[in-house]
Write a structure and sequence with these properties.
Blueprint lengths: L2 H14 L5 H11 L6 H10 L4 H11 L10 H21 L9 H13 L12 H16 L3 H16 L9 H12 L1 H9 L8 H6 L8 H12 L5 H12 L1 H6 L3 H9 L6 H16 L7
Helix pairs in contact: 5-6, 6-7, 7-8, 7-12, 9-10, 9-13, 12-16, 13-16
């Protein structure tokens, strides 16, 4: 039996006995042992499989450029990252923009604003929509990443990825959503159009906040694996699958306002199934894209 056929046999066996992902975890551990991490292979793995929770923060930090590919540099680079974190936090405390009582996600926002040169003149200034999106993403990330320094850097680079790498792609996601929903269920799309709901769907929540505040973190991190590793288009298929999952409920609603309100507060107990089906849909329509927006 060849090595590939042995691996395929083991994968089928493990899946049958309830250990789906054992082979994938071993494959990732092999990739992470390389002296110089291969970011292309890590991207491909993250696109194809969910990352094991014990390795997620490390892989995200490498793919987001927080850590370099070389293992021997990781400790020193993270020391620099920690020092920068402390310096920025100290500066905010000196100018009394934050205090020990400031909620952690707001601290992250003010740090990001200061580093980007966008700190307002006063903490009492109203937040911009992009600030609200940052806070939503930060709140979700805080549930996924325990260490505050890691958490800030991942949020910072995740948001920068949305604002830079995906800047031209994000505005086209609502149209792509219509296209794929039409392919999957044209009657459902017709109902949304009849109710004048298509233009009023929660695109801000879905695409600018990447479902932060919509899906629980346990499901959300599987979606963000794909975003971090190169595809924001996965967000389209999560939105499509939400509509397909709650089709009966949505078809029973006859106004854009009611439909939008429901979609902004979907039941949480179906989220794992929604994400799994969305990933299947994504692979069905896009293959296994790497670095594709």
């Amino acid at each position: 039996m060849t090595e590939d056929s042995q691996r395929n046999f083991r994968s089928v066996y493990y899946e049958k006995v309830g250990f789906r992902g054992v082979e994938e975890k071993k494959s990732l551990e092999i990739l992470l042992k390389d002296d110089r991490l291969d970011t292309e292979k890590l991207c491909t793995f993250s696109q194809r499989f969910p990352l094991p929770s014990m390795y997620r923060a490390l892989v995200w930090k490498v793919l987001l450029g927080i850590l370099p590919p070389h293992h021997e540099s990781h400790a020193q680079v993270m020391m620099y990252r920690k020092e920068q974190y402390s310096d920025v936090l100290h500066a905010l405390k000196v100018v009394r923009f934050v205090s020990d009582a400031t909620p952690q996600v707001e601290v992250y926002l003010r740090m990001y604003q200061l580093e980007c040169g966008k700190l307002p003149r006063s903490p009492s200034f109203p937040l911009e929509p992009e600030d609200e999106a940052f806070l939503a993403i930060a709140k979700a990330m805080e549930e996924m990443v325990e260490d505050s320094v890691d958490c800030y850097w991942i949020i910072r680079c995740f948001v920068n990825q949305l604002n830079n790498k995906y800047r031209d792609s994000l505005p086209h996601l609502p149209k792509a959503f219509e296209q794929y929903l039409n392919l999957e269920d044209s009657r459902l799309l017709s109902h949304l159009r009849t109710c004048s709901a298509v233009s009023r769907l929660p695109y801000e929540l879905w695409f600018k906040r990447c479902f932060a505040g919509c899906l629980p973190e346990s499901s959300l991190q599987r979606v963000w694996d794909k975003v971090v590793s190169g595809s924001c288009k996965i967000l389209v298929f999560v939105a499509v699958e939400i509509l397909l999952t709650f089709k009966i409920k949505v078809m029973a609603l006859n106004s854009a306002e009611k439909i939008t309100k429901f979609l902004e507060n979907i039941p949480q107990d179906s989220s794992d199934a929604i994400v799994s089906k969305a990933i299947d849909l994504w692979h069905k329509h896009c293959g296994t894209p790497v670095h594709s927006a």
